[in-house]
Amino acid sequence: NEPLLVVNDLKKYYPVNGGWFKPPSELKALDGISFTLERGETLGLVGESGCGKTTLGRCILRAIEPSGGKIEFLNGRTYMDILKLDTKSLRDLRAQMQMVFQDPYGSLDPRMTVFDIIAEPLTTKSRISGKKLTERVAELMEMVGLEVKFLNRYPHAFSGGQRQRIGIARALATNPELVVCDEAVSALDVSVQAQILNLLKDLQQELGITYLFISHNLSVVRHISDRIAVMYLGRLVELAESDQMFEKPMHPYTEMLLSAIPSPDPDVKRQAAVDGEVPNPANVPPGCAFCDRCKYAIPKCRTERPELRALQNNHLAACHRAEELSLVGAV
Ligand code: SF4
């Protein structure tokens, strides 16, 4: 496997005012994230809302400036240390790294035609025009399953699924190596979700794109991901191949998330929902951030932070008790 993106100890801290009686503190939205994205794979990134997954996606594209760490982008002979790029190099990099957003209604400018929306990155980043531009836009529309005759229509004339196809065509316009999909199907009906996920898979096969697929929905992530990373309060707590994660999770938080997925088998009664509340991100417990919600916690969990470590077959987890617990999957 060939790495495309190497993220090392990535941090994003926000200052928090303490008020009258408390000193100022920091909200650690990302607190030392490290992982590698292999070329052509889909890495699913899951966790409850507020865990930092969207911040991570945006920091990788430098839509948000991280507070520290390193992100390396390796494309053939091109090597880029993303956090050190100047504005011009960053613009060039953005042609190779694109984002598909959750809301196909809000992310498309209602005053622009489909042609203008898809053509915009081509005119600004690739500087093509005239007949070539029209041909490329038509090609992109066909690639995502939209009829070219709708070229001059406005976004409001399309359904949610069609609008997401327009968003995907726009993201693919500059032939990116990496596409970050941030809750890309969450706003769509289940049947439309499946169509868009299949489209993303087909495009990956055809074009060799690498996806970072961010979602709070584990079933959706499983459908599309080769590997899955689980985030909790700004940290990665588990990383494994998709099937392994579902069959034999090694972190109690992942077990809890899996237990909340409704089973298609009516005889299988799972826990109805995820237990407990996520702690205040500006006041994370000193040891394991999950200890207040974990039924397996021992005294050590309250004082020592568990590091993400390799356990077996490229399966990583950040739990002091990972080896001794027999956690239940959702297969
Ligand atoms: Fe639970 Fe302790 Fe593991 Fe944290 S380190 S997940 S508290 S058992």
UniProtKB/TrEMBL annotation:
Superkingdom classification of source: Bacteria
Pfam families linked to this entry: ABC_tran, oligo_HPY
Organism field: Devosia rhodophyticola
UniProt keywords, alphabetically: ATP-binding, Nucleotide-binding, Transport
Residue ranges of domain ABC transporter in the record: 5-258
Key word Nucleus present: no
InterPro entries xref list: AAA+_ATPase, ABC_transp_ATP-bind, ABC_transporter-like_ATP-bd, ABC_transporter-like_CS, Oligopep_ABC_C, P-loop_NTPase
Keyword presence, Nucleotide-binding: yes
This protein's name: Dipeptide ABC transporter ATP-binding protein
NCBIfam families, sorted: oligo_HPY (TIGR01727), PRK11308.1 (NF008453)
GO molecular function, one term: ATP binding
Subcellular location: Cell inner membrane
Topological category with respect to the lipid bilayer: Peripheral membrane protein
Annotated family: Belongs to the ABC transporter superfamily.
